[in-house]
Amino acid sequence: MEHVIARIEAFPLVYAEPHYRGAERCVTLVRIETADGVVGWGEAISQVPAATRATRTLVHDAFAPLLLGGDATNVEAHWHAMCRHAYWFGVEGIAAFAISAIDMALWDLKGKLLGQQVVTLLGGRLKDEIPAMGSIIFDMDDLDWTLAEFAWMREQGYRIVKAGWGMTLDSVFGEDRTRDLRYLTEVRAVIGDELSLVVDVPGAQRVWDLATAQRRLREWERFDLRWVEQPLHPADLDHHRRLRAATTTPVGTGEDEWSPETYRHVLSCGGVDVVQLDPGRCLGLTGCREVVRMVEAAGLRYSMHSWSSALNTAASLHVLALSEHGDTLDFKPHESPMQHDVIEDPWVQRDGLLALRAAPGLGVTVDERALDRFALR
């Protein structure tokens, strides 16, 4: 039986992120409904108001007309149709947000229609549980607060913890060698040797040049970091290769990429150990699956940059469960509106792990009554 796509609607949302001292952040949710009343949901991590409004416009005006009346289970054909349609303005940027949210919603919808988990539809589940990486923002002007957060995450059972950037762009991790060393020393003392630690340098802000990155990573080898995330500007692929050759500390990058084509350049440069994916940005679950295949062929690992809504968390879990090369995902350790207020069944880590749910689709239920409270006007 063909399940016809009858309605596609985008919901631009704005909220205060408690992990970022109340900073304004945005996501775009997409709701797709079939003629027989089954609904799927997806998300784009559109981040700022202007991009979020533009994402809604592309969902409604560029891509919905292509899909309406089509078979909801023919997800990959719809993905290719959207990518072809975007040939002139490109599948990166705002178009990638729109395609990502629609694609995620289609996989959720297909899973519900067929009574299958999304990971099964993508290729098959290899894992039942995924380690959650408790991820916070450094306060580079308040070491005591930062250490208290790491101590709390250890008490909560996290096995992998991460921090990066800074509460303001005027004071970020990576810019002051002495302060960075103090933070790393004190954090490692608080969490002990048994917890795995990741740190995130604002490479997109060009905090380091290659020589500085090489010196810092060699100096940090004693902290036994799981990886250092985005130590250089993401476009400096040759510098990533030279950095990776100069240190034993693994290098992670990729959260700024948009499509399998751009990830192909990252993988071929030889400068990355852990490839970061975000299903709300890199052309959805279909795009992620294509990149995972490339990561497997290259013998690397991948992690999921999932620091937005519970839909993104769900999608990331399915992508990680798809492959033995999947590592971990960012997970907000405290309550957050997009993880709790707009979802009826928030994710809860236990002993540092998140379990895939048996429910069909993504396994998350959106509380549609709550959406108006966060609507971006």
Describe this entry's structure for a reader.
Residues 147-250 form the Mandelate racemase/muconate lactonizing enzyme C-terminal domain. GO terms for molecular function: lyase activity. InterPro entries: DgoD-like, Enolase-like_C_sf, Enolase-like_N, Enolase_C-like, Mandelate_racemase_C, Mandelate_racemase_N_dom. It holds the Pfam family MR_MLE_C. The protein has helices at 49-67, 75-85, 94-114, 118-122, 143-155, 177-191, 210-219, 237-246, 260-268, 284-298, 310-320, 337-340; strands at 5-17, 23-34, 39-47, 129-137, 160-164, 196-200, 225-229, 251-253, 274-277, 301-304, 326-331, 353-355. It is an alpha/beta fold and 377 residues long. It has 2 domains: 5-116 and 369-374, Enolase-like, N-terminal domain (Enolase-like, domain 1); 120-355, Enolase-like C-terminal domain (TIM Barrel), CATH 3.20.20.120. It has an 8-stranded parallel beta barrel with strand order 4-5-6-7-8-9-10-11, surrounded by 4 helices. The chain has a 3-stranded antiparallel sheet with strand order 1-2-3. Helix 2 (75-85) runs antiparallel to helix 3 (94-114). It is globular, with a radius of gyration of 20 Å. The chain starts with a strand and ends in a 22-residue tail after the last strand.
